[in-house]
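Archive transcription. Copying these from loose printouts into the bound notebook so they stop getting lost. Printout 1 of 2:
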Amino acid sequence: MTGEFDAEGFVLAGGRSSRMGAEKALVLFRGEPLIAHALRTLSEAGLRASIAGARSPLENFAPVVTDEEPAKGPLGGICSALASASALASASARWAVFVPVDLPLLPAALLTFLLREAQTDGAVAAVPEVNGFAETFPAVVDRALLPALRSELDAGRAGCYSALQTAAASVGGSVKVVPVADAVRDGRLAHPDGLELSYWFLNVNRPEDLARAEACGS
């Protein structure tokens, strides 16, 4: 735990990378592996960063939390990260912040904004909303949700957003859906490179997505 928040950061890197045709975490974006970009985003938000799940050796980049349910998608990685030992992440930290490895244009300012929104409103989770739709990631999650999230995973309900909603309700809390466009419009949130909001969530799944992301801001 570092900085102003009682929080830790995790990069979700357990995907199969089938559409990329190569290990996504190690694909180069602007001269660096995508995993390095994601870890730096967490670090710039003042968070100690670990990696949740990995399909290739990534220990040289940051501590790796083994995904105990690698076939069950991101929710398996989230549960493993929330349960991780203090040797990898502070078990005393209330919040965990999750970013996927394939959103290289995501600004660190969005993570700190979501954390403040969750803490201010007393929510137990927070996700961004763009164009009227809730984005699953980045996600701020209270560690107290682990038992309910694991129950959802064990029951075969692996959708992250619906699992967060169910878990939040189980503890009498809520998932705060934060309208990011409003914050950008009124100057509370901005990208350091001046990128428009539509590019922040550009998902790099395929080589053509990578080329599009590379071209942004250049």
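Printout 2 of 2:
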Amino acid sequence: MRRWRTHLGWAALLSASVLARTALDWIHPTADFHLRSSISTMTSAGIFVSAAAVAAWRSGSWTDGPIAALVTGLVAAALSTIGVVLLYALRHDPRTLQAIAGSGGLDEALVLPWLVTLPGVLLGVIGGIGGALARAGGRRLAAR
């Protein structure tokens, strides 16, 4: 991994998906979070794996995958924290406060993006191995 800035796009995408889910929960509350949590989990996992695979493919080293996932997760968590605070500042009427409480509370919205980084790094290992293997396989095909 050459620069952390190369992962800024992935981090912005991850943060946007987290903030979209948070806003949806606050603006359109639900009692059944199964579908929303499934979609947001798969989206986040896909972003972590993709960021890691691209980093490993570019470098040829699988170890760049988990590093890319870590940087992506930490930057996204910082951006998400800022976004949640801004969202709360813009919408803190009684109805929204009730929706926030029903969706896990404000502390969950602030802490969860940071906690997701650990499984994101584990997914980064998978993406890193896949990206490095794809690059090695591409080299073998080009050599033929």
